[in-house]
Specification:
Layout lengths: L2 H10 L5 H27 L13 H38 L6 H25 L4 H36 L6
Helix pairs in contact: 2-3, 2-5, 3-5, 4-5
Amino acid sequence: MHPKLRQYFTDLFQPTRPELLAAIVNTFLVLAVPLALYVAAAVAFNTSNVARARVSTNFEFFLRTIFELGLFFTPFVALAAVSGWRTLVHARRYCEQHGGGWQGVAEAGAVGLFIALIVLARGIITRPLEAPPYIVVYGGAALLIGLAVGLALRFTAILVINLASRAPSGRA
């Protein structure tokens, strides 16, 4: 491995690097929100007081629950990885005073719009004359949600960077 590349990765994964800590926190934050929503939905939609006999064993119930969680979390794992990577990039630029992190907020909005366009793609292709109102409403809503998420992640990253920078030098 090239010495400069080795030094880059050695410096990157030092525990005193606040931008790495910010990226890890934002990655887990992106994963924590859907987990909380999944748990809330499981609790909220189980309001029945009727007892039912379960026909599957505990192991089968566990496997089915893990499979459902895997299906539910797969897109969020990809989004969390992207958000962690982009947080690392923007936080490094923020620490070097080359940026304020606002580009990351715009990127999050663009990701929201892109996801909406993917969801609407079939309707856009099959009924192009009826698609513009849906694109404006759903695409605009997804853009605003993406901007809100990006703003929250920017705030969290700056908070972590500031807290980690104030920590004594053996602790991040």
